[in-house]
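Exam revision sheet. Question 4 asks you to relate a sequence to its structure. Input first:
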Amino acid sequence: MKIKILLLLLLSASAFAQQFTASSKITGVKNSGLHAVPLTPEFRSHTDVNLSGIRVWDSRKKEVPYLLEEANEAVSKYNFKEYTLLSKSVVADTISQVIVQNTGAAKWDAITLAIANTDAAKTYSISGSHDNKEWFGLVNNQMISGLYSHTDTLVYKTLPMPVNAYRYLKISFNDKKTLPLNILAAGSVTGTQTAPVLLEAANSHVKIMQLALEKKTRVTISFNEPVTINRIAFTIKSPSLYKRNARLFLQRVKRRKKKTVPYMEEFYAFDLNSSSKNVIDGLNLNENKVVIEIDNKDNEALEIASVKVFQNPVKLIADLKAGEQYTVMAGNKELAAPDYDLENFRDQISDSIPKAALAKPVLLSAKPKGINGGKSPWIMWVCIAVGALILLYFCYSLVQDLKKKENPAP
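Answer key, structure tokens:
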């Protein structure tokens, strides 16, 4: 019976351990206290999209509280000056609008919105008015995205526009594909903003194809696992003068006659221009493949030197002890975000706390490389069923042994 109990415990422990897919040691803790541990792109390639499946363990596998801090737009409630938000209106499944009154500067060239945390992306237009009656166009059909935060309930998003002296602004959002955004406030940012230094995503594979008959260039960016994408940057070698329309597509699936059919959905339209930086910013995607098509028309194809994907830096903050060994576990998609007391002291944590580092991540489990490169889900379900039957057998045997022990034969 002892052997059966031991096997049951081992199976349970094994099932628990397999929930995490990767781990990484924390290094560089020289003194006890709060430390900031930057999450490397290699480590993040093994995490879930919301980073909720991360846990920190000490050498005894005791859970260590932590909080995450993402370097996004350098805007906070301390340098955000609110304007009067006159109205918000929603036409279901069509359009939502907010009207803002400029109560400050005589001229403005941007408006900053405080938006409730969401993973939605939308197109928007901006118009201006002197009397809140007659409206004139300023910005048309631009994309707003990157509205998701790992650490806060709202994000600040600055929308640029031509310099104008209109007293009122109307911002209209296209709601045909997604529910309306929750606009909490509108205003301007005071002081100097410092943009975070983004990190290049790990394991990106770029393939460039020239579609001569279609007069297009197709750029496919793929990854080993779904990764967070906040920026895509192009380096164009030639020609010296160009302006090309481009579109970004995401791979999606739909049901058709009880079958799952993959297709490419257009997500964002933009231009590649010799007079611009050729950077798609403000994205908040988690994908293992994106496709970009560039319309060349009758021009020669662009000579693309490089296409790179970047992520906003995220650091893990925890109270660590010198001499202790800590491991950061990742990839448990079943876990919800933890609720630690440390979160209540976020505003009191200094930016100058010492830094620690993450070692190279170690894989705890790997996808099967059998039929279709591990894309056959029936193998997974067979393994789960076999494991469940083994557990049931040992539980049944254990109960029978206990009954015999309690009621021995005469």
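Marking note for examiners. The first helix runs from residue 2 to 17.
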